[in-house]
Amino acid sequence: MNEGRFDEWLQSILESDVEAVGPETEAAATPHGAQDMETDEPGTNAQGDISRAPPAADKKVRPIQMGEWRRKWVSRRLLALQSNDIGKVMTAMRQLGVGTPGGAEALAIFHQLVYDQWQRGQLARPLARVKVDETNCFGRLEWPAVRAASAETLPKHHAVTCWKHTAVSAVEQPGVAAAPKDRGAEQGDVDGPLECSVTLGVVASRTKHALHAEQRSGALPWVSVSEGEVQAAVAEFDERSSRVSEWEAVAPSSRRDERGTITTDPRHEIQRLGGITDFWYLDDGDYLCDPRLVARLLNLHDVKDDEVGGKRNRPKTEVIYYADAETLQAHAEEWQLETVRSLASIRTPDEASPTLGVAIGSLATVSQQLEQKAKVISAMQSRVAVCQDVQTEHVLNRQSLESAGLTTSCASTVTGCFKQTR
What we know:
This protein folds into 3 domains: 3-72 and 143-182, no CATH class; 88-136 and 195-347, no CATH class; 363-421. Helix content is 51%, strand content 9%. The protein has helices at 3-14, 34-38, 63-67, 69-81, 83-93, 103-119, 137-140, 143-153, 155-164, 192-217, 227-249, 294-307, 325-330, 337-343, 363-384, 390-403, 406-421; strands spanning 127-132, 169-173, 176-181, 276-281, 284-289, 318-322, 345-347. It has a 5-stranded mixed sheet with strand order 4-5-1-6-7, sandwiched between helices. A two-stranded antiparallel sheet has the order 2-3.
C-alpha cells in the first residue's frame, strides 16, 4: 500500500460513524487486518507474522509496549492526522502533558513563581494548591469511561479506541502467569497519554462545574462578597450552563465551528469569582483554589473519579496552603482543616514534595537538588565511555540529562536566580 492510499485508509477510520461505535458494536470499528494485530492467541496470522505471541520464558515484556508494534505505527499516524483537534482540546483542559513541548518545565517554573509571590507577600489573598495523586491511574481507568471520554472530546479518536478494545490485553510479571484485563489507558501505549488525559479532563471539568453549581445555589461561597460581582458570577455560570446544554445536544462528530475547528466542553473554562483553576501533566493534577473550597473540592473529585474507575491516593495527595502559621490557625474552622487532614496531607510551601521531580521553594532548596542531579548525571556519563562510539555516547549522554530531569531543574534554578538578582 503506497503512502497516499495508506493515508486514505487512516482518514476513513477517523471519519467513520463514531456515533454508532460502542461496546456492543466495537467489532464494526475494526479495520481490515486489525483482528490479526489484536489477537491474544499465540501463533501467526494469514501473512505468517507473529501476532501477540507470548514472550519467551527468559524475556519479560509488556505486550502493549512491544507486542503491538504494527498498531503503534498506525496509531502514531492517526494521532498526527488529528493533531489540530488534540491541540485545541488539550489547551482547553490545561493539559500540558500531551502535545506541549516543555510542558513539565512550564509547570515547574509556574509553581516556583507562585512560591516567590507568596514569599514576597504579593499574593492578594490566601491560596491553596491541591496536588492530586491518582492511584495507578493508567491501569485503573475503565474502558467504557475511556471510550466515552474519547467520544465526547475527540470523536475522531473514538473509533481508534474501540478498535483497540476489541480484545483484552494482559498484565505480565516475572514468575506469574499472564493475567488478562479489560481496563486501563495502557501506560506505554502510543495512545495511552491521550486517553488518560481526556478521561481525567472529564473528571476535572465535572468536578469544577459541580462545585460552581453549589456556589450558584449558595451552599458554597464565591470569592467576592460584593453583591454586584456575585450577580455577575451567577450570570456567567448560568450562561455557561446553557452553552453546556447546547454543546451536549449536538452530536460529537458535528461539534465544530464555522471554520471547522473542534469546539470544546464549556465546563473547562475558568469561572469568574469561582476561586478555582486546574493544570495537568498527564495524571499529575494541580488545583489552585480558595482555601475554603478545598474540602468540598476533594470530595467532589473523588465522586467523579470513581465514575471512571479512578481512585485518588489520599496520603500522597498534598494540600499546600500559601499562608503563614498564624493565618492557618486563625482560619482552621473556616477552612475545615480537620476534614482536609482526613482527605489529604497538609503541607506548608517549604514542605511540599517536588513538582514533576523538581524541587519548588527557596533558591537554596532548588540549588541543592540541582547539585545532586548533576552528580548523578556525571556518574552516569562517566560510564558511557565504555561504548567507544561517538554517536552512541552522544545519544546516551543526552538521554541521561532527560532521565534525571536536569533540564527542568535548570529552568527552575535559573528562574530563582533571576528573581534573586532583580
